[in-house]
Amino acid sequence: xxxxxxxxxxxxxxxxxxxxxxxxxxxxxxxxxxxxxxxxxxxxxxxxxxxxxxxxxxxxxxxxxxxxxxxxxxxxxxxxxxxxxxxxxxxxxxxxxxxxxxxxxxxxxxxxxxxxxxxxxxxxxxxxxxxxxxxxxxxxxxxxxxxxxxxxxxxxxxxxxxxxxxxxxxxxxxxxxxxxxxxxxxxxxxxxxxxxxxxxxxxxxxxxxxxxxxxxxxxxx
Amino acid sequence: xxxxxxxxxxxxxxxxxxxxxxxxxxxxxxxxxxxxxxxxxxxxxxxxxxxxxxxxxxxxxxxxxxxxxxxxxxxxxxxxxxxxxxxxxxxxxxxxxxxxxxxxxxxxxxxxxxxxxxxxxxxxxxxxxxxxxxxxxxxxxxxxxxxxxxxxxxxxxxxxxxxxxxxxxxxxxxxxxxxxxxxxxxxxxxxxxxxxxxxxxxxxxxxxxxxxxxxxxxxxx
Amino acid sequence: xxxxxxxxxxxxxxxxxxxxxxxxxxxxxxxxxxxxxxxxxxxxxxxxxxxxxxxxxxxxxxxxxxxxxxxxxxxxxxxxxxxxxxxxxxxxxxxxxxxxxxxxxxxxxxxxxxxxxxxxxxxxxxxxxxxxxxxxxxxxxxxxxxxxxxxxxxxxxxxxxxxxxxxxxxxxxxxxxxxxxxxxxxxxxxxxxxxxxxxxxxxxxxxxxxxxxxxxxxxxx
Amino acid sequence: xxxxxxxxxxxxxxxxxxxxxxxxxxxxxxxxxxxxxxxxxxxxxxxxxxxxxxxxxxxxxxxxxxxxxxxxxxxxxxxxxxxxxxxxxxxxxxxxxxxxxxxxxxxxxxxxxxxxxxxxxxxxxxxxxxxxxxxxxxxxxxxxxxxxxxxxxxxxxxxxxxxxxxxxxxxxxxxxxxxxxxxxxxxxxxxxxxxxxxxxxxxxxxxxxxxxxxxxxxxxx
DNA sequence: GATGAATGAGGATTCATTCAT
DNA sequence: TATGAATGAATCCTCATTCAT
Lengths: 221, 221, 221, 221
Hints:
4 copies of one chain form a homotetramer. Chain A is mostly helical and about 220 residues long.
């Protein structure tokens, strides 16, 4: 005798439903890719999935929820594909190798799942991240932070976060350029992105080992 | 009824028109800032400007044109404010100084004209830059390229472009973080952005002079 | 697997069906109460009942049918609770007593079954009573008419009907006010409603007995 | 340079706009009458008015606003037609005459403006009056209260309100019956309604003059 | 019986743009 | 020029009802 209609029932789903959800997410991915997240309409997604709008709303309360679920599944798949870490945590690994590998993996993943880029696209107004992007962003951020912390175990948390934010931002920017080009040009941008990140992180890591890699770029005087 | 209607009316009309345009652009800037470019509606802009939608369309054929004109004027003002170059072209200037100054100027300009960020926001779909952003992007790019070329006179054009694209991308990413924070945190992000760019460019410049990179890139003089 | 499937299964099925129906009606009552009949959705009723929409339609062909059945059961329960008559039919009973008792009962019933009000709510368009309300209305009307006829045995049928309609209408109006208030205010409205009806009926009844009306109907003791 | 888009500008309107508004309100009245307020859709109203949905929304932010404006205009017209008072305020006027006249006027007004009934229709859930009906209800209530206070100058305010609420409720109920019938039957219901109200009010007024109209009708023995 | 999936027309509302005055 | 009116397709979302399993 439930009095509270609000309460989320765990909703037993049928196999057909699961298939529909997958189909809808696929359609959403396709639409997000071709029009961008903001311009994508739920009707367009339903149409692309070959179902009626009502069906879409049986599984998702709104566009945001679709994006969130899509992001969740993507992160899940990323984890399954590449394991918990994006790169070897062995601090002995040269930074260049680690970063290079991480970027290669990220890029490969992005090319396999082009919707990733659309979902990663930041807020139109700085500081006002919508929930749909926030979850994805936060997850990515924490993965990057984990990766960094293995190289910078002594860095204070705030700094680590800042560095991770910077890296993610730079990565997104680089990705945009990479995806916007093809062939040799694309490869060149990949190299460029790696260069930016490696050079950014190198001095920080160097500090860690007590190696003065030449001086550089600390935050503190 | 002015003394000399023949001569003055046409002028007046234009003067009034100019005022209208300025008024509309100001309103557009305000609306773009508070809702983002995509979500901004022409009706909202007209309302904000205190004119009717019809009036808006008397001066601009569509929303895109408003953004383009706004971008043009911003670039123009930038040029007027900071001169043709964003930084001293003297190649003797240490890179750190030059980049630091350029970024400081860019950021100052952005804070004075917050709409700049809204207009700079990249394409939702990589490779498909809308015309409204394209013009601004191209202009910025070429200014950066100019700046770079004074440091890297021997670099091939394609490489220069690539580096400029990278710099611009990184700058946008950094700006987003900067604008998304306040106070000390914001300052920290400013330092971080400078670090990323300086470290990225250092080796390129160093190569040029045969100097082993290894100096540079602190925040404090 | 029961011992005697032949005999018990059919029964069981019906028993289960009855339970389902009761469950659905209870849910419907709850939803009708909280949103009103018009705004109530069959999906919401099914959800509230903890069953699927399909199940609901196994027992009721449409929303209307639910309301009708609910109304029927309410009338049935009313009869069971208060007997065939709403008040003693003894014409010797003072009108005041009879009417007061009838109203008290009606109100008590309404408070026990708040959905009653939702179902009683008249037609949005005069003269076009929907079937769902019509049945309930007709039943109530005839009960009131019966009650009246014991006091006005000589009144022509048309007049009796008219008086009954008036009484029912007034009662509904009063009920709305009563339910819309609480505590002492509510009690005051109950007294007011009784006053209206008693004063309305008094002369009619008085006529019957040749008594010059002149007793009764103040608000204050 | 208005910063606040919320602020309601007084909106200079053109003559055409005024005509459209009138046309839309007329259409709304028609639709409210034929389907009831709740079931009426803005699209249907626009269609009835022969304009596009967008046009409707140029003048009204939503359905509620249409109802409110319609109600306002009706009350305005009522005042213009019948003057500030619904009936002579002369306390010497026999109650019967005054009430009879007031009801006749109300009914005449309702017959001229059948939408009045649709707008008067109370809340689906007692106590939760929607804004659109509330305004109309409050206005009517206060007019009735004014009328009553000329007959019951000594009654405390709370009682006056209660009596007015009762009268309004009874009136609505009666109106429903009246509009639901025609010809002689309708007339009979008009008489009946008058009887209810006059008999309800008579003792109250009688008290005022120190005339014991016979005693009572209290709740308690 | 029971379930959840599916429907699709219809709901309110918005918006870039055009038009008559 | 300037205005406010007008458009109509498109937006998101809901709901009574039916269907396959």
